[in-house]
């Protein structure tokens, strides 16, 4: 949830460009073949009609409930042209977070240390 919300606010791809391969009628609008279409991912991810009045605020709980529209969150693209590096990028994000978190100690409500700072990290 936290990663999805961070990616929603800071989308890795700001727009997608597609081209129609044949004439299309979309909600009464005629779109001729070979027309380039620009999907503004960042505008969609900050749209208050989709995400609510707090669309510009960090709120990971918005991913607890099903989205109003299945295509409202597409930071990596949609369909067969989804980014091939999506899974690698998500693994890298998790690894970086793990390395950062190892630098801190956490204390529960009773004052017990839950995790200790790690010794000097060796990255090569």
TrEMBL record:
<keyword id="KW-0560">Oxidoreductase</keyword>
<protein>
    <submittedName>
        <fullName>Uncharacterized protein</fullName>
    </submittedName>
</protein>
<keyword id="KW-0408">Iron</keyword>
<dbReference type="GO" id="GO:0016705">
    <property type="term" value="F:oxidoreductase activity, acting on paired donors, with incorporation or reduction of molecular oxygen"/>
</dbReference>
<dbReference type="GO" id="GO:0016020">
    <property type="term" value="C:membrane"/>
</dbReference>
<keyword id="KW-1133">Transmembrane helix</keyword>
<keyword id="KW-0472">Membrane</keyword>
<keyword id="KW-0503">Monooxygenase</keyword>
<dbReference type="InterPro" id="IPR036396">
    <property type="entry name" value="Cyt_P450_sf"/>
</dbReference>
<dbReference type="GO" id="GO:0020037">
    <property type="term" value="F:heme binding"/>
</dbReference>
<keyword id="KW-0349">Heme</keyword>
<dbReference type="GO" id="GO:0005506">
    <property type="term" value="F:iron ion binding"/>
</dbReference>
<dbReference type="Pfam" id="PF00067">
    <property type="entry name" value="p450"/>
</dbReference>
<comment type="similarity">
    <text>Belongs to the cytochrome P450 family.</text>
</comment>
<dbReference type="InterPro" id="IPR002397">
    <property type="entry name" value="Cyt_P450_B"/>
</dbReference>
<keyword id="KW-0812">Transmembrane</keyword>
<dbReference type="InterPro" id="IPR050665">
    <property type="entry name" value="Cytochrome_P450_Monooxygen"/>
</dbReference>
<keyword id="KW-0479">Metal-binding</keyword>
<dbReference type="InterPro" id="IPR001128">
    <property type="entry name" value="Cyt_P450"/>
</dbReference>
<dbReference type="InterPro" id="IPR017972">
    <property type="entry name" value="Cyt_P450_CS"/>
</dbReference>
<dbReference type="GO" id="GO:0004497">
    <property type="term" value="F:monooxygenase activity"/>
</dbReference>
């Amino acid at each position: 949830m936290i990663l999805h919300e961070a990616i929603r606010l800071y989308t890795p791809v700001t727009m997608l460009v597609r081209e129609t391969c044949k004439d299309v009628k979309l909600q009464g609008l005629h779109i001729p073949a070979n027309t380039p279409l620009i999907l503004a991912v960042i505008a969609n991810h900050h749209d208050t009609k989709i995400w609510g009045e707090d669309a510009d605020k960090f709120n990971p709980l918005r991913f607890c409930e099903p989205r109003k529209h299945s295509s409202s969150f597409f930071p990596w693209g949609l369909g067969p042209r989804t980014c091939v590096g999506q899974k690698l990028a998500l693994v890298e994000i998790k690894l970086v977070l793990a390395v950062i978190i190892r630098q801190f100690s956490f204390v529960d409500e009773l004052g017990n240390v839950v995790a200790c700072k790690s010794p000097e990290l060796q990255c090569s």
